[in-house]
Design brief:
It is a single chain. By secondary structure, the protein is α/β, with parallel strands linked by helices. The chain has one domain: Rossmann fold (3-Layer(aba) Sandwich), CATH 3.40.50. Helix content is about 30%, strand content about 25%. It has helices at about 20-30, 90-95, 115-125, 145-160, and strands at about 1-5, 35-40, 55-60, 60-65, 70-75, 80, 85, 105, 130, 165. The strands form 2 sheets. The chain has an 8-stranded mixed β-sheet, with helices on both faces. The protein has a two-stranded antiparallel sheet with strand order 6-7. Strand 6 (about 80) and strand 7 (about 85) form a beta hairpin. Helix 2 (about 90-95) packs parallel to helix 3 (about 115-125) and helix 3 packs parallel to helix 4 (about 145-160). The longest helix has 17 residues, at about 145-160. The radius of gyration is 15 Å and the shape is globular.
């Protein structure tokens, strides 16, 4: 199976918290089971110098790295607000590459990457699943902004998902 994992931050940006570690372990595990896995993420300051032993190079979307059979694509970012980044090259990536995947797995919420990719998934009838990783219910900080996010993007992202992975009862 060809799987695209879409997440706001990915290795080597461990300073972004536990999701980075979780997504990396999950992606590597799928690759060990002979799945073709790619991770689509934001460029949070990636460069060939901080590739941490990965096979790194520039690509038309920003940076590309490979480690343990997992391809990681770091989309160039125009700007950011807290953990939210603006990645206009996601549109080109989806137009050129999304059809090569059988399934898309979104991890986390409150970014612009997930809603953009899910829009193209729905248009191309590519199934996707969403794993909010404990973020579905707005519970801490910026509650109004999180509710606005759900109104504008999150509800449509969730409604279009083939499956929703809840990691705790709080997400029901």
């Amino acid at each position: 199976m060809r799987v695209l994992m879409a997440v706001q931050s990915y290795f080597p940006f461990q300073d972004r918290g536990g999701p980075v570690v979780k997504v990396r372990a999950l992606a590597r595990g799928l690759a060990r089971r002979q799945h073709q896995v790619a991770v689509l993420t934001a460029d949070l300051g990636f460069s060939a110098r901080n590739g941490y032993g990965m096979n790194v190079g520039r690509c038309r979307w920003g940076w590309r790295a490979e480690e343990d059979g997992v391809e990681a694509i770091y989309l160039s970012s125009l700007g950011h607000y807290r953990a939210l980044t603006l990645n206009p090259r996601v549109v080109g990536f989806c137009g050129a590459s999304l059809r090569q995947f059988d399934l898309v797995h979104f991890l986390g919420l409150y970014d612009l990457l997930g809603p953009a990719v899910s829009y193209f998934c729905r248009r191309r009838r590519i199934p996707y699943l969403v794993e909010p990783m404990g973020m579905y219910r707005p519970i801490v900080r910026s509650l109004r902004l999180k509710r606005l996010y759900h109104l504008l993007f999150g509800d449509q992202l969730i409604r279009g998902a083939r499956f929703l992975i809840a990691t705790s009862e709080r997400e029901w």
